Structures are given as C-alpha cells and as structure tokens.
Amino acid sequence: MNSTSRSVRLWALMIGAIAGAQALRAQPTGDFDDQLRAGSSALQAGQDDIALSAAGAAIHAAPDRWEGFALSGRALLALKRFEPATDAFSQAIELAPEAEQPQLRALRRQAVLEEYGLAPGGAPPPAAVTSPVLAAPAAAAALPPPPPPPPEAAAEPQRTAPFVLFSAASSEAAWTDSAGLTWARPWYYPATDSGPVNYSQASAICAGLRLLGAQDWRVPTVDEVKRVYLPSSRTFRYSWPKFDPNYGLREAIEHDAWRVRDFTVGTDTFGANRLLIWSSTPGEAPGQHEAVYFGAAYSVPDEKALGSSFSGRGRRMPFHAYVLCVRPAEGTR
Asked: In this structure, which topology does domain 3-115 adopt according to CATH?
C-alpha cells in the first residue's frame, strides 16, 4: 500500500469516527455514486451527520475522487466543524480538475471565515457554483472576494491591513508577542525574499531586512519558533499549519497575502501546507540547523530548501522551508 492510499484510508477512518454511532447505523449502502447522491440528499434535508457518514463511505469506495472529500467538507461546514472542513476542502482541491478548484477554494475560504466568526450569514451561494456536489444549502454564507495582494515591496507600509481578518497590535507589518519579541509579517518582506529558502538564504533575509525603520532583524531560535508555530490537532497530511492566531499567518496564507505555493520534489508535487520554518539553533551535526514542522523540531541540513523527508525518518514528510524574522520590541532591549 503506497503512502497516498494510507493517507486516504486514515482520513476515511477519521471521518467515520466523528460521524457518530447514530449516523453510522443510518449510513447508506452502495457504490461511490450512490453514496454521493445519498449524502447530498441528506445534507439538503439537514441530516448533516448522515451526510458526513456517506462522505466517508464514498472516500473509502473511491479514494482518488475529489467529490467524496468535497461532500465531507460541506457536511463538516454544516456541522460547524470548520477546521476539519478546511482540511477536507484542501484534500478535494488536490484531487479535483482545474475547472472545479475555484468553487472548492471558495468553500475553503468560507470555512476559514466561519471559524473566526467573520462570515456574513443568510445569503445564497454564488451563482457560479454549479456542481451538485459543491452546491451548498440555501443558508450558506456568501463569500467576500479575496483582497488585492500587498505591494511588491513595502519597507514602510503606507496602507491599511492586507485583508479583512487582519488586526495588528501596533503596526500592520509586525506583531509583538507576549514575551516581548517583534515578529515581521513575511508578506512585507521584499518581493525577492520569497521561499523556499535554505538556511544561508534565510539568515541573509533577516540580516538584510529593513522594516519599520529597524535593521536588527534576525532568525529566531527554535524555542521562539515553537511559540508561534504550534502542533496541529491532526496529522499534517490534512492540516494547514497552526500558528499563534495573533500573528495572522494562517489567515494570510488562506487569503494569498503570504504566497506559499504547492511545490515539487523530483516528479512529486506536494501541497502548500507542508511548511518548514528555520531557526538559528544548531542542529545535530555540523552544517545543520533545527527547523520547525507542524510544531515539532527537526535537524535539517543547511543547504536544504525543500525535501521529501527528514534524514533518518522512513515515512515521507515533504517540506519547503521559509523564515520568520524577529527583533526585540521597543523598550525591551
């Protein structure tokens, strides 16, 4: 069994577990198309748990089809389980044809907005949603259009927040945490400082950063990174990176303000969620530094900007590396 099959089977098991015993007893039987029809009908009738169970059965029947994950995301959205709904839509996007992806991305944005209590309610779904798998119930929220990207270079920001979810503590280009460190928001780095980057490039980005009139930016230590890059509640295969919500990184990724992209290692393409964040802490061997991946620290060779696994670990753990620059807050130096 390959890693993709194992990943999909794990997801199907998780879907079945959260559906509940009652929904499992009412789970329809039949092939993939039957499960999709039954799940869509249950969702329209307000039987969200049954729809979720049918989605799990559809995924089990056809793990390489996007429609089962899309149905699962819609059911989870209706159940107000917004974080797993986001993950389900992300998995559907990876499998769906290009023509279906805009609708799936719109639904994923809705899940993010709902999670933070910022989705407007009561509006019908957009007219562009034509797939019966994606068509949301009539009470679904209408989504605002994504905001324009930030300027190509913004050494001293002269505009309002880059997207609707953003709220800055003191200045939109940086955030100061409870320990007194100021973290630069990476979508305000110069446009040339885009990832993925190796450790030498990461160090140069922070040393050369000129933001908010400050020149003393540096690469954070591994303990500092772990304060803001938190462990995910589920396996990384189905999670977006979890950051301190006050930093705003997850919302920036979802709104395309911080442009992390899908990436390729050899002939394999991986999702943009597989973020590795460099630290200045030396690694286990010369020429290595520790970096944080879904809240856990790993020793990574300095020349690596992306990879399909970490040294000495058997299972595939694809990553692409970025850096978050820090400095002491004013008055704490």
From this structure: 1.25.40
